[in-house]
Amino acid sequence: MAENTAISWADHTWNPWIGCTKVSPACDGCYAEALMDKRMGRVKWGGPGAGVGGRIRTGAHTWNDPVRWQRKAVKEGTRPFVFCASLADIFDSKVPAQWRAEAFDVMNCASSLVFLLLTKRPQNITWLAHEAGGLPSNAAIGATVEDQSRADNGAFNLICAVDDLEQARTPPLFTFLSCEPLLGPINFGGSLIGIDWVITGGETDQGGHAARPSNTDWFRSIRDQCAAEGVAYHHKQNGEWLDGVRVGKRHSGRQIDGVTHDARPSVTESA
């Protein structure tokens, strides 16, 4: 897997395994499926009518990547953000429990790295983290929330997971929501309490899936809600659409009203 990433909210991506099952509308245009299943044929993606799909563990070189990044981070005095996993879901219950436990061991040994555990299954965080020996202290947990329904449920399940993890004395480093692809307006209505970071982004074309439009006003609303609540806000991209017109990703850019939003949560020095 690539050492660096084009994803603006992370510095590295790390995939201890590859493969997943579609569980929400955000999965319809899954870029991991388009790359790993349809283009490369490495693993069969699961979803409605296709079963749970497959999961394959990556090789030793990939599993050693965080060790190399840790050495570099210590030397440079940095705390890189590592997205785990861009080609899977770390809280996918169909993955062998041992894989997750071993992945958590790697995270624990790379204390200068900040692991971003983004999931579309926030209801699984608590029990799968406990099963794997407890959430690593340098791990942040996040949920994908692409529309109002998913935002209501996802934010609730994420905060519930935080409460459970804190009681188990394995709290997350911070919490975040990824509204990408944003498929409808979201009014958090106070549910940003306990959330440290929000990411937004429009959808892009993936294989045979044509990107659905995101309205710029939806992004503006989330931007303003984050500003009002003091939540760090990061806008990844506008996607294929801009102000109701399909202009293509290259022309739509990343700005909202001429401003680039690159905020990340602040993290303290590692132990």
Number of strands: 13
Specify the number of helices: 7
Q: In CATH's first tier, which class applies?
A: Alpha Beta
CA distance, first residue to last residue: 27 Å
The CATH topology label is TIM Barrel
Gyration radius over CA: 18 Å
Strand order of the largest sheet: 1-6-7-8-9-10-11
CATH-scheme architecture: Alpha-Beta Barrel
Return the structural class. alpha/beta
For the sheet with most strands, the description reads:
7 strands, parallel
Unreliable stretches covering 5 or more consecutive residues: none
List the helices and strands and how they pair.
Blueprint: E1 12-13, E2 17-18, H1 31-39, E3 45-47, E4 51-53, E5 56-57, H2 60-76, E6 81-83, H3 97-108, E7 114-119, H4 125-131, E8 139-144, H5 148-167, E9 175-179, E10 197-201, H6 216-229, E11 232-237, E12 241-242, E13 245-246, H7 249-252
Parallel strand pairs: 1-6, 6-7, 7-8, 8-9, 9-10, 10-11
Antiparallel strand pairs: 2-5, 3-4, 12-13
Helix pairs in contact: 4-5
List keywords for this structure.
7 helices, 17% strand, TIM Barrel, alpha/beta, 271 residues
